[in-house]
Amino acid sequence: MSDRHIPPPPAHSEPTAVAPRVYESSEHSIRKSDIDEDARKVVYRLQRAGFKAYVVGGGVRDILLGKVPKDFDISTDATPKQIKSLFRNCRIIGRRFKLAHIFFGRDKILEVSTFRDTVEPPEPTDSEDSSVTAPVVNDNLYGTEETDALRRDLTINGLFLDVSSMQIIDYVNGIDDLQQGIIRIIGDPDVRFAEDPVRMIRAVRHSARNGFRIDETCWESILRNAQTITQSSQVRVFDEIKKDLSSGCFLTILSLLAETGLLEFILPELLENNGRLLSADSDCSVCLEKVDDLVSKGEQVSATTVLAILALFMAGDSIWLRDLAEFVETTRELGERLQACFTRLSVPRKERERIQMLLNLWGRLRSVAPKQLKPGTYKRSSLLPDLISLVEITQFSREDAQRLALLKSLLDSEPHGHQHLDHQHRRQRKQKPHPL
């Protein structure tokens, strides 16, 4: 990361400074053109109505790191009701804490949150769905921009950008940690992990994705508190891990989860037999490396495909693809074996069904010589793109290469019938990073 890209850190290094360090537009490299146009419009409308409003969190962090943000979140002192009164395309969601979703077209949603207090509301249970629409109630703990910054998880996620003045407001020394390449929890890690153990997974994720080291105090706290991840909602834990499956660094994340002790309580199957599935000579590691490589090249690899790879090795009880191929082709116990996978990771029933269907297709494909394949069997399947990914990642023979070519030709020969599926296998145009 270039020193020219991120401004020099302030002199002090306490992670929870009360007085913010304000970086003027001349002191950092973010420009208005880097911010999503609709996000700017939302901020401007809120500000014209007399409210404070900032682009916050990951969007600011990613631009400073030379990445293209996946989304732009906005934080304001307007309440959800007040936000909704300004935007007809707004919907209020959430039970634990009310959020405003502002819709732009079919697929684009900007999330706007009200400044939160530092006091944490209780974590939702597995039966709660944070996306369920519900009327706003009065138990939301609203705060100020300062308390909102201090209640965020990591210092690098605690930055506020005013798109009007292009000032970065830093209450937590996030710029300092971005400059030094450090993952640090805001506040006392033991306290913050007790409030929400899922923060441990997030610390590992951002360390792996950015090549940052985890602050020693934070690292030791994760080692002490790893088991408390079992106190979190299993649905939330799965949702967090699902973000990592197709992140392009899943194997690195799994290794860090193993080092910290978290993996034992999330995917313990990967640690059986001295962790042989994650060993360097395991075909499981090789396949996960291929997944990360495809994603890094701009390919889409679905969560179903990655979970199917994990389930294949777990159910087949081998580190070798040749053994697993023979197992899937001949066993009648695949369904029972798969049901025994993911003992701690709460993979939804529908996802488990898709995994089993995908592996059944994979086994059927492998049981027939390429010249004898019946294309119609696979052409009509909604899992064709996932099957192509799975064959590409697990191929180990000339026949596999032939099968892969046949499947790709099926997808290419249906420009209309499979348009809704083909998006998973289009090579996305790689976006240029923010200039140094």
Helix coverage percent: 40-55%
- Written as H for each helix and E for each strand, in order along the chain, the element string is EHEHEHEEEHEEHEHHEHHHHHHHHHHHHH
Sequence stretches where pLDDT stays below 50 over 5 or more residues: 1-5, 9-17, 125-139, 415-436
Total helix count? 20
Strands, total number: 10
The chain-level mean pLDDT equals 87
Briefly summarize what is shown.
The chain has helices at residues 37-48, 58-64, 80-86, 145-150, 174-180, 189-195, 198-210, 216-225, 234-245, 250-260, 272-275, 283-296, 303-316, 321-330, 334-339, 349-366, 375-379, 384-394, 398-412, 419-422, and strands spanning 21-23, 53-56, 73-76, 90-93, 99-104, 108-114, 159-162, 167-170, 182-183, 213-214.
Which characteristics define this entry?
disordered C terminus, 3 domains, 20 helices, 44% helix, alpha+beta, disordered N terminus
Account of the 3D structure:
The protein is an alpha+beta fold and 436 residues long. It has helices at residues 37-48, 58-64, 80-86, 145-150, 174-180, 189-195, 198-210, 216-225, 234-245, 250-260, 272-275, 283-296, 303-316, 321-330, 334-339, 349-366, 375-379, 384-394, 398-412, 419-422, and strands at residues 21-23, 53-56, 73-76, 90-93, 99-104, 108-114, 159-162, 167-170, 182-183, 213-214. The strands form 2 sheets. Strands 1-8-7-2-3-6-5-4 form an 8-stranded mixed β-sheet. Strands 9-10 form a two-stranded parallel ribbon. It folds into 3 domains: 1-180, Beta Polymerase, domain 2, CATH 3.30.460.10; 181-266, Hydrophobic Seed Protein (Orthogonal Bundle); 287-425, no CATH class. It starts with 20 loop residues before the first strand and ends in a 14-residue tail after the last helix.
